[in-house]
Amino acid sequence: MVFSSLTFIYIFLPVVFLFYFISPKRVKNYILLLSGLLFFAWGEPVYVLLMVFSASVDYTAGLLIDRYDDRPKLRTLFLVGALVINLGILAVFKYASFFVINVNGLFGINLNDPSLPLPIGISFYTFQSLSYTIDMYMRKIKVQKNYCNYLTYVTLFPQIVAGPIVRYSDVANEIDERKTTVSLASEGIGQFVRGLGKKVLLANNIGALWTTVKDTPIEQLPTMTAWLGILAFTFQIYFDFSGYSDMACGLGKIMGFHFPENFNYPYMSKSISEFWRRWHITLGSWFKSYVYIPLGGNRKGTARTLRNLLVVWFLTGLWHGASWNFVLWGVYYGIIIICEKLFLGKLLDKLPSVIRIVYSFFLVVMGWVLFDVDGLAAAGKFYQTLFGFGQGGLMDGNSLYLLSTYLLVFIICILGSTDYPKKIVNKMLVKFRRTEYLVPVFVLGMMLVCTAFLVNATYNPFLYFRF
Amino acid sequence: MNPKKLSVILFFVLLFALPIITFALPKKEFSESENRVLATMPKLTGETLADKSFMSGFDSYFADHFVFRDQWISAKTRIELLSGKREIGGVFISKNRMLEDVQEPDEALVDKNLSAIKEYAASQEEGTTSVLLAPTAADIYKEDLPSNAPVMDQSRFIQNSYDKLGSGVSCIDAAGALGKAKGSDIFYRTDHHWTSLGAFTAYQASASALQFSPLSREDFTVEDASDEFLGTLYSKTLYNGIPSDTIQLYHYQDDSAVTQVVVNTGSSKESYDSIYFRDFLEQKDKYSVFLGQNQPVVTIKTNNPNGKKLLVFKDSYAHCYAQFLIPHYSEIALVDMRYMSGSYKNYLESSDYDQTLFLYNVSTFTTDNSVQKLSLAK
Questions:
Q1: What is the phi/psi pair of residue B222, to 5°?
Q2: Which chain B residues contact residue A10 at CB under 8 A?
Q3: Which residue of A401, A444, A455 is in closest CB contact with B72?
């Protein structure tokens, strides 16, 4: 199920909330577990079993690691076992086709392509569940003995399919003990509604422009249209994904959970290193905690640091999907970040903020070409077109038409990518206390407008479902 | 009340009220305003669950029957217009009218359509086959399109197509005539069809190709049959900023000229005594007052003593055009190959007719390949 659907908002949510809030405390996790399974099964009626299996492996590994606390070799064995099983499942379902195709191409052989359909959210829940086993191994958390509670954590419906990647340690206490308050719930509702608006009103709208551009044969694509298209995607993916994360965190708050935030105005970053501290924060910090630091981080000399960075960025790319596009996209960021660490960073520090923001934004936009134009050759042609070496000329009537019909949406997207609206609202709320009453009006208005767009949704994809 | 409490209450009231009302209200099978059959509740079986068709079916069912659906859609159209969008669901909305977006044609498809007609013409007596490609409103009222909107140049397309058809076919320049008449209401403002006046204009332009002397407007009595027509373009957008259209019927002297109208649905034949199916005036789909909805074959017989018979291969543009042919023929057969699976020969023989007319609007002709069924007759 997706958040941005009528079925989710007007059937799933009211039913789940009704049972959740009327039931006594000790039953609440069962209700959550049931609703998480149902939510997942709506999109993956068969693979739901795979997820339960994957979670059970980590649950068992956690128990065993706890049980044999004084047997280091056994503990390591359990950790490795859980890693192998979980990453093995991920490898088979997500990367097998990619692997087979490349091996076939490389050696000229003809292995059978299994072409299994990708289970929704597998990259997210595998990483989530693994965080528990690894943290258990590193003795950072206490064991969860209650199977239902553990499964509840993995299947928490707000975050199961698209993050944020909530680590067990983030919610360990709240799984056992949490409280919904009016204040937290209203905060959550505000965040949910904002996220819904980002997704339904901004991402879907501007995304339609990118779809039009992507469907144009590259030979006929003028430079200006290509720029409009890739900028549209730049905003689409941000509002799509951060909108989804906002909805997840908001729903969490309504039920008393505090999930980690996943985005912090990434397009205002003044360097690429900063961008990745503001974009998909939970993924970056996962790789940092569980790959970069265990590899030695930056404590073992420059050469090792560089190697570790490249490994992390290769994996970050690969995590996004089984294709060379994503791998290259990850390595692209790895190289930029290495440059920033070595010399570029010091240079940037001397420049005015505006230039640093433009620098980062430009590189990010260039990255999105690799990310979303399928195939490296096609991406190469797209770059050519962007820089005026394409066959479609510089601009045509259609470029102007697209610009004029999407101009207002672009302006709203640009403003929405900065923290100015938030600052203004906060100032207003402090200065004129009465304006507090605008918040419920905003909630109601946004819900109504989004409902109108969902009732007649012609274009409502969800980008991060592929990962 | 505390504004935080208010947020929570409003959110939950909305969350519960809308689905409850949706399920409490009786369900419609057909949406008059959108002019389409609504989704039905999918069957819940192991199979439909496993292949997810239950889930997608339920999503459409819930959306189709969602309370105040029409109002939500209208609101969405209004908001999209405010955001700067000018085209909504394939419909351009301007101050004056709505216009169907006709996309650049698929050349290969068009060429096949044209050669099918050419081949047909070659098999007929010389000079008896005519073609009328009608432009749509988007071409005649270009000034109502947003500036730089990417639309095809229909007039040029029609000219090119006529050139390709060559001299074996008499081509009718309706586009030129319609362009000159654009000051009058020759196209509906909420529907993709031409009006009776538009069809009349094209009829006058057809005279030399079809070899009759055209009547003038004064020869007809015009009846305003309904002024509440909201057409297909309205159905797609539910935009209520354009007032409803008037449907006019052009009566030549009196309707007694028509002796019989036979509608062959493929499975049955029904007889009527008028080309006007007035029941439709009470429904949403008011354009169907002209000979009803599309059917494989409709035959009109008149008391005209001249014995001339005309065969028309057509789309729905021909329905209101047909009213002007009645004074000139004793029999007219309208054949819609989109609604038959085999050859038209299963219904009639072209040799029984003195003339053939192909009448399509550019939108149909560039997207539909049913004309190619002509070759099944060989």
A1: -100, 130
A2: 15, 18-19, 22, 62, 66
A3: A455
From the CB of residue A33, how many other CB atoms can be counted at a distance below 10 Å? 21
ipTM of the complex: 0.88
Residue in A with minimal Cα distance to B21: A10
Cβ atoms within 10 Å of A440's Cβ, excluding its own: 23
Cα distances (Å, whole numbers) of residue A103 to A97, A98, A108, A115: 10, 9, 8, 15
Rounded distance, CA A155 to CA A52, Å? 9
Q: Which two tokens stand for residue B127?
A: 């000079």
- pLDDT on residue A108: 81
pLDDT at A462: 60
B1 pLDDT above the threshold of 70: yes
Q: How confident is the model at residue B50 (pLDDT cuts 50, 70, 90)?
A: confident
The 3-state DSSP composition of chain A as helix, strand, coil percent (nearest 5) reads 75, 0, 25
Gyration radius of chain A's alpha carbons: 23
List the single residue in B with minimal CA-CA distance to A441.
Answer: B7
Q: Catalytic amino acids of A?
A: 320
Q: Report the run of H or E that residue B360 belongs to, with start and end.
A: strand B355-361
Selected residue of A6, A221, A456 to mutate for chain B interface (largest B Cβ count, 10 A): A456
Percent of chain A with pLDDT over 70: 98
In the A/B pair of chains, how many CB contacts fall below 8 A? Answer: 121
CA distances to A112, A208, A215, B317 from A226, rounded to whole Å, are 38, 14, 11, 39
C-alpha atoms less than 13 angstroms from C-alpha of A463 in its C-beta half-sphere: 25
Tokens matching residue B108: 């290969």
Instruction: Find the CB nearest A182 among B8, B10, B16.
Output: B8
Pairing of strands B129-134, B355-361: parallel
pTM: 0.89
Pairing relation of β-strands B220-229 and B245-252?
antiparallel
Query: Are residues B347 and B296 in contact, defined by beta-carbon separation less than 8 angstroms?
Result: yes
Residues 52-111 of B with CB under 8 A from A: 52, 55, 58-59, 62-63, 66, 69, 72-73, 75-76, 79, 83-87, 89
Secondary structure of A230-249 in HEC code, one letter for each residue? HHHHHHHHHHHHHHHHHHHH
Q: Which helix or strand (DSSP H or E) is residue A396 part of?
A: none
For residue B253, give Cα distances in angstroms to A213, B200, B257, B329, B347.
Answer: 56, 16, 8, 15, 31
Q: How confident is the model at residue B72 (pLDDT cuts 50, 70, 90)?
A: very high
Domain parsing of chain B, residue ranges: 19-67, 98-377
The residues pairing with B226 across neighbouring beta strands, listed in sequence order, are: B247
* Edge-to-edge strand list for the sheet holding B91-93: B87-88, B91-93, B98-100
Cα–Cα distance measured from residue B281 to residue B278, given in angstroms and rounded to the nearest whole number? 5
Residue B46: burial class (beta carbons within 10 Å; 0-12, 13-18, 19+): exposed
Question: What is the pairing mode between strands B98-100 and B36-37?
Answer: unpaired
